[in-house]
C-alpha cells in the first residue's frame, strides 16, 4: 500500500466518523479544501462514491459503509502497532485524544495541561469538548472524562479530582421577594431554572438525599437552559433558583452574591472519572496520562 493510500483511507474514515469535513479536517490538521480533494482522489481511484454529501450532512454511501466496516479494525491495528513501537522510546510520544464534558474540561482537565506538557513534552493532547455522551471507541478517542454515574460498567475508570456537590442557590434579591424553600418539596412552589440532559434533551429532575431518604423533584420556572453560564447569570439577576455544581459557583456563594439553601439535602458525591476501554496494550500516551493523574491525585482506579 502506498503512503498516499493510507492517508486517503484515514481521511475517509475521519470524515465518515465525524459526519463533517470541517471536524475531520481539524482532527487531521488539514484544510477543508485539501481534505475534499483527498476524498475526491480516493473516490476517483476506486471508481466509487464513498460519501453522500448534502448542504447539511455527510454520510457514507453503501459502498462507503462496507469499506468503513473493514477499514476501522485495520486502522486500529495500525495505531496499536505504532503505539507499541513508540513504547520503546525513552519518553512517551504521540497523540492522546480525550473526550470530555464541558465542566470536566474546564475545571478538571484544563489545570492539568501545563504540568502534563512539562512532564511529557512529546505528547500532543487532542481534546474534544461536548456534553453529549459519545462512544469513545467508535469515535477513536483514547479516553473520556465524565461523571462516574455516566461511565459504562465495561470501562476502566480512574478517579479525576475530588468529590463534587450540587448547590441549590438563589440571589438575595430573589429570597427577599419569594422567600427560601425549607424542603425540596417546596421547590414546586418556586421559580426554578430548569436544565436539559445532554443525552436526550429531557428535563433534569433535581435529585436530593438526606440519610436514607431520597427525592426527585420536577421543578418549574421561567427558564430552561443547556448552558450553565446562562443559568448562573439568571440566578445572579434574581430570575429564579438554580441547581449548580459547586465548581462553578462556590466563589459567588462565599462572596454573598448567591445564597445556598437545602444544604443538608445535597451531600457530596463521587465526581469525574477518566475512563477507557479495557485493553491488553494501553497506548503509551494514555498510560503516561493515567500515571500522571494518579500521582497528582492518589486514588484507586475502579473497573466498571
Automatic annotation (TrEMBL):
GO MF entries? DNA-binding transcription factor activity; sequence-specific DNA binding
Q: What Gene Ontology terms for biological process does this UniProt record contain?
A: DNA-templated transcription
Pfam families, per this entry? HTH_1, LysR_substrate
Q: Which UniProt keywords apply?
A: DNA-binding, Transcription, Transcription regulation
Keyword DNA-binding present in the record's keywords: the answer is yes
Q: Where is the HTH lysR-type domain?
A: 1-61
Q: Which InterPro entries match?
A: LysR-type_TF_proteobact-type, LysR_HTH_N, LysR_subst-bd, WH-like_DNA-bd_sf, WH_DNA-bd_sf
Give the family per the record: Belongs to the LysR transcriptional regulatory family.
- List the protein's name: LysR family transcriptional regulator
Species for this entry: Inquilinus limosus
Amino acid at each position: 500500500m502506498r503512503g498516499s493510500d493510507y492517508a486517503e483511507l484515514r481521511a475517509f474514515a475521519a470524515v465518515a466518523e465525524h459526519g463533517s469535513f470541517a471536524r475531520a479536517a481539524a482532527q487531521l490538521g488539514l484544510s477543508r479544501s485539501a481534505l475534499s480533494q483527498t476524498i475526491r482522489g480516493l473516490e476517483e481511484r476506486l471508481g466509487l462514491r464513498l460519501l453522500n454529501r448534502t448542504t447539511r450532512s455527510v454520510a457514507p454511501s453503501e459502498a462507503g459503509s462496507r469499506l468503513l466496516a473493514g477499514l476501522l479494525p485495520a486502522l486500529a491495528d495500525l495505531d496499536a502497532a505504532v503505539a507499541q513501537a513508540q513504547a520503546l522510546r525513552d519518553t512517551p510520544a504521540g497523540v492522546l485524544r480525550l473526550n470530555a464534558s464541558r465542566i470536566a474540561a474546564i475545571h478538571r482537565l484544563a489545570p492539568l495541561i501545563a504540568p502534563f506538557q512539562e512532564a511529557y513534552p512529546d505528547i500532543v493532547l487532542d481534546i474534544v469538548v461536548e456534553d453529549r455522551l459519545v462512544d469513545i471507541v467508535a469515535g477513536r478517542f483514547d479516553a473520556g472524562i465524565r461523571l462516574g454515574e455516566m461511565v459504562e460498567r465495561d470501562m476502566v475508570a480512574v478517579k479525576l479530582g475530588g468529590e463534587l456537590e450540587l448547590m441549590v442557590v438563589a440571589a438575595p434579591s430573589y429570597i427577599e421577594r419569594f422567600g427560601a424553600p425549607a424542603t425540596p418539596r417546596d421547590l414546586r412552589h418556586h421559580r426554578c431554572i430548569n436544565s436539559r440532559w445532554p443525552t436526550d434533551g429531557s428535563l433534569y429532575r433535581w435529585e436530593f438525599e438526606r440519610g436514607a431518604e431520597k427525592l426527585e423533584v420536577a421543578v418549574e420556572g421561567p427558564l430552561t437552559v443547556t448552558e450553565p453560564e446562562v443559568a448562573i447569570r439568571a440566578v445572579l439577576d434574581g430570575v429564579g433558583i438554580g441547581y449548580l455544581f459547586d465548581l462553578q459557583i462556590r466563589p459567588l456563594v462565599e462572596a454573598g452574591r448567591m445564597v445556598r439553601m437545602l444544604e443538608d439535602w445535597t451531600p457530596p458525591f463521587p465526581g469525574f472519572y477518566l475512563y477507557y476501554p479495557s485493553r491488553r496494550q494501553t497506548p503509551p500516551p494514555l498510560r503516561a496520562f493515567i500515571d500522571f493523574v494518579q500521582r497528582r491525585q492518589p486514588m484507586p482506579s475502579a473497573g466498571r
